Structures are given as C-alpha cells and as structure tokens.
UniProtKB/TrEMBL annotation:
Domain Core: 2-104
Gene3D superfamilies: HesB-like domain
Organism: Sphingobacterium kyonggiense
SUPFAM superfamilies noted in UniProt: HesB-like domain
Pfam families the record matches: Fe-S_biosyn (PF01521)
Protein name: Iron-sulfur cluster assembly accessory protein
C-alpha cells in the first residue's frame, strides 16, 4: 500500500479541483523502466480501471497501482515538497536500494 502525507493530499486535491476531476478520478502511481537508476516513478490521474489494478485509499485519496508496480512500491509514502530545493511529489520508498540525486528514479 502507498500512503499519502497531508501535504501530498492537499496538492492532489488542488490539482483535481483545478482540472475539474470528479469523484470518479483516482491517483495512478506506477513504476516504469528508465531513469538513471533503472526504474522511475510515474504519477497521474485516471478514471479507467485496468485489468490487474490494485486500489487503496489513504488520507481520503483513492490510489491505484498495477500489480507490477505494487511489488516495487509496497510501503512507499507519497509526499509533496514546495521548498527551495525543488517543488513536486516525492516518493519515500523503503524498497529502493539506491536512488538518483533528483529522487525520480531508483533501483531495488
């Protein structure tokens, strides 16, 4: 399961509101091949369920993972930073053995 911090929840709700996404939309989190460490995170909004999707809810946010991504992301925390060092969503993944300096890719 992926957990959502309060800051990430606030930002997700802001995006959903500004894009006029209704309650049928959810956050889709996935892992793809790529990035300087081998695997990269992908986050978007979706309203279509796909075969093998795993759904969770945390902090009032509905989250979807495909089964492959679930294996890499179990126990991950999704946070949001708006500080001077960068702005955007951050993944705190306990399964990652190595991450790149930008935090957008990892390896296990």
């Amino acid at each position: 399961m992926v957990t959502i911090t309060d800051k990430a929840k606030e930002r997700i709700e802001e995006i959903m509101s500004s894009e006029n996404y209704d309650q049928n939309y959810f956050v889709r989190v996935a892992v793809e091949s790529g990035g300087c460490s081998g695997l990269s995170y992908k986050l978007n909004f979706d309203n279509e369920e796909k075969k093998g999707d795993q759904f969770f809810e945390d902090n009032g946010i509905k989250i979807c993972l495909d089964i492959k991504s679930y294996l890499y992301l179990a126990g991950t925390e999704l946070d949001y930073s708006d500080g001077l060092n960068g702005k955007g969503f951050e993944f705190h993944n306990p399964n990652a053995s190595r991450t790149c300096a930008c935090g957008e890719s990892f390896s296990v």
